[in-house]
Please model this.
Amino acid sequence: MRVTSRFVPPPWQRTAQAAGLLADDGGVRPTIFAEMSALAARTGAINLGQGFPDEDGPAEVLEAARDAIAAGVNQYPPGIGLPVLREAIVRHQAHWYGLQWDASTEVLVTAGATEALAATILAFVDAGDEVVVLEPAYDAYAALVARAGGVLRTVPLRFPDWRPDPRELAAAVTDRTRVILVNSPHNPTGAVLDRETLELVVELATRHDALIVTDEVYEHLVYDGAHVPIATLPGARERTVSISSGGKTFSTTGWKIGWVTAPAPLVTAVLAVKQYLTFVNGAPFQPAIAAGLDLPDAFFARAAATLRDKRDLLGAGLTAAGFDVSPPQAGYFIVADASPLGHPDADELCRALPGLAGVVGVPVSAFLQPERRSTVRSLVRFAFCKRREVLEEAVARLATLA
Ligand code: PMP
Ligand code: GLN
Model:
């Protein structure tokens, strides 16, 4: 669809265009994930692009959704979410992280982590406010900050270890910073922010009175070490909005059940925006995600172990095929450098890869602002949240690239 300038306020159009969200002719550019899934569908290539599992999650969770529909949980839930889910979120955060929240004032159910991010950014970022993000960054961040009229300040993460330089991070945060937006475990790199970095974020946010917004949708998919929510660090809780979602943990990315946990005044500010975005969503999926959050620890350990094996399978396959691989500690994705294979341009390679090898990946450049894309020019993101036989076939196909 073409968005004509008559209906688009000029400042938004300018920032959106600068951020690469609108095509040069003013048309809407599809997200890289939609574009690459369409390419896979069109060519029949194996889709290691968009991050979604190709098999169902736990039977108990699916069953609970069917039961809820049968029991008539089909009308608007309360604006802050069904009590059964808010209470399960509270139990989950206490059990795994020792965080205590009030289910009636400090928890908000949202339409996926995406709506939680949108409502949080729209609630706190005014025109001209700066938002610090570590880049590469999930594509929605830049789009939402632009929509809010905010100014994105990026701190580079560099291949292959993706650790931010503490001096660069410290220099990016100033009194103009309204929000420091972190994502750990991280998409697309699979990196986990170490404790020193998390501590530095808290210290900088405190010094400059900034809000911390943390996207932890991959919290249960950590393969080396354990997930440390930034809200557990001393001094963090009072200024942190934590965001997660059931999509990755329970292989239900199409359900779009997410949530926010934060002190009551912050939740209230997010709710004020959220109630006029979607108002509510996914009534029968809410008790189902609650059932998932209450599953025994063994479920979470098994899910992570299964994905760890898949990471190892794809990682070894990419290495054998000649890619230079950055081993991810967490998440759904592996970033691989295609330059040793004679492919210096990942954008070009990803568009040609279905023809060359029958596989789809995503160029990492899509996770950076246009002016910095050249720094990741030869990097491709591959998803390993797929069945073993699919990954084995993908690896065999990629081996033909050498
Ligand atoms: N944040 C990150 C880092 C993601 O990778 C994703 C994508 N799936 C989301 C947020 C969106 O989550 P949801 O599907 O729950 O909206
Ligand atoms: N988070 C998923 C990914 O990174 C995709 C979500 C989307 O399509 N917007 O692949």
About this structure: Residues 51, 112-114, 138, 183, 187, 215, 217, 245, 247, 253, 256, 258 surround 4'-deoxy-4'-aminopyridoxal-5'-phosphate (ligand 1) (CB under 6 Å). The mean pLDDT is 95. The radius of gyration is 21 Å. The chain has two domains: 11-56+298-401, 59-293.
